[in-house]
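Repro case for the chain-ordering regression, as requested:
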Amino acid sequence: MNLILKPAETYRGDYSVRNSDAAILRFPFPFPEDSYMYSVNIEPHVPGGPSVAYDAAFDLDEHYIGECADRAITLADDPMRCIVMPHLIDAEWDTLELLMESLAKDYPEQFVLTKDGAVWHWVNHPLGIDQKFTFGDATTLPYPPFEFITRQVQGDFTLQDQRDNNLFVEGGMVTAQADWSLNFDAGMSFMEWHAPVPLAHQSGVFERALAYLLRLQYGKPVRRLNWTLTANPRLDTSPENYPIWGPEKAAITPENVGERLCLRVELQTLTRLPRSNAILFGIRGYLIRLEELTRVKKWSRRMHRLIRDLHPDIATYKGMSGYRQTIIDYLGSFDDGAPTSSGTASEQTSL
Amino acid sequence: MKLKITGVVPLSPTIREFLLADAEGAPLPTAGAGAHIMLRIPGPERMWKNAYSLVSSPEDHHEYKIIVRRVEHSRGGSAWLHDHAAIGDMLEAETPQNLFPIPLLAYKHLLLSAGIGITPMLAYLQVLRKPFELHHCGKLEDAGAFAGLLPTAPNVFMHTNRNALDLEYLLAHQTLGTHLSVCGPASFMDVVLQTAQNLGWPGAKVHKESFGGATGGTPFIAHLRRSNITISVGADESLLEAIETAGLTPPSLCRGGACGVCETALLDGVPDHRDHYLSDTQRACNSAIMPCVSRAKTPELVLDI
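-- result from build under test --
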């Protein structure tokens, strides 16, 4: 897969990160219609779709180096962003195997994995990592296996143990979250960690999603999209650091909303792991400034109508109460009222 | 995926070990302890789909190993493997799935198996990270075959007679945090599970592999309402197999009544529930059936399919 990497940009402070035209056109826009409501929007995670972001098992893009650097900063400040409970040690190796094999297969110019029995050799060219280790022997790696590999992949990851007809989130690498805390949620069951979500419980969405995931098959991963809004392209919008990013939300004005406010989309993947029978949940986040998004005509119109008509409970849950009208006013200037086609494709080949 | 038989080892007159490699020599997908593989086995009139526990190590990506008993009055699969399968033969297979994973929170594993139910335990023994105690019950004529597969250790016990195992004592004298995993014929698992329940074992600490199970029965008629097809289900085929023979491809996974994937709405008729999936309440409602194992108590069933 063709992967051109930018030098590291910043996701804090001066927020230097920008999307190239190519990155805008490959953005996994999540809305197939002009309105939004919760649903069990899970589909097989097979290559292909309206964006090339769906082509790899674990999608990397031009922001790879900068996102890995930002993760390292967050971990240095707060090591509890990476937690794996001891009974999930096999799931750590499962994750390492899956991610290394997937990256080496999808991005052979950047990543090379060679195996000689249990002795593995991992080369990550973009980050300058060259590591020989013994699979199954954690003492041969500089970090525990799950942390070692998830420091080198864009997106957050959690590990769910399956038992008693339930899933329990008992591991994860979470440094780019939309206002939730792994350290707080660790050990919770499926219904417990989803408890804050409005409306969806009443419609039975979570019962059906759990029943489906309990039967998730090895070799048949699935995916879904989720979204929210974030002030500035900040990866670490954690509850722990609300004092940093909360004021940035409050500083959104009609003058700066296009530049600062970002649509944040999560390409979520769920994969059954073989040794542990745990589920690896990948939360691959994409940030796009509204002024970047509005360069795509169809997305501008749709985004305006969707935010305008959004159920107030969902708007509150996604944290946009303070500036919802500001967004609607801004996006409204890009909506000429023309009809939009169904589906998420940009329907543009250039900007 | 396509597998090639790379080894056949007779362990006894009725038990054989088979080694299976990728047809093209590619590395095999990792399969955890407790996983099974579904093989499509050629029969004289149609394909059989049989699930076998893998006994190879999860770290062996070169060959999967299965151990197959020739079932008396075999419906086809095990008879073909014993009488016809040879090195070099190709078999279609599904990616391994695991419906009997190791309980990760156990402080100790109590493993109980009977007969060919030893197979998932052989995979367990290679990877367990916590103390374990294994009791295996088998017929005297099989003792030699199984003894060669099990390590000689103070926590591994062979019983050539089920009565030689004092289940009640064993289950009443386990340390806190012990998880029980049981695999074998239904009659064996029923006794073990009932004994555990009587002694107050919490359900969350008792795990069973469904094994054997799906045998035939009285033929019956099934009307597939949405497809507008009527099929007859023969004495030695399952309802699911009859549906597939009619050209439909309903979702299925374990084909042993455990995973729930093939659950189908029932519109009329009384099923003979043989699955391990539906709750007692769901069974009593007679509004759903697991066609991979369950049959009919009435001459006809009407399915919403």
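Ordering looks correct now. Chain B has three domains: 2-97, 108-209, 220-303.
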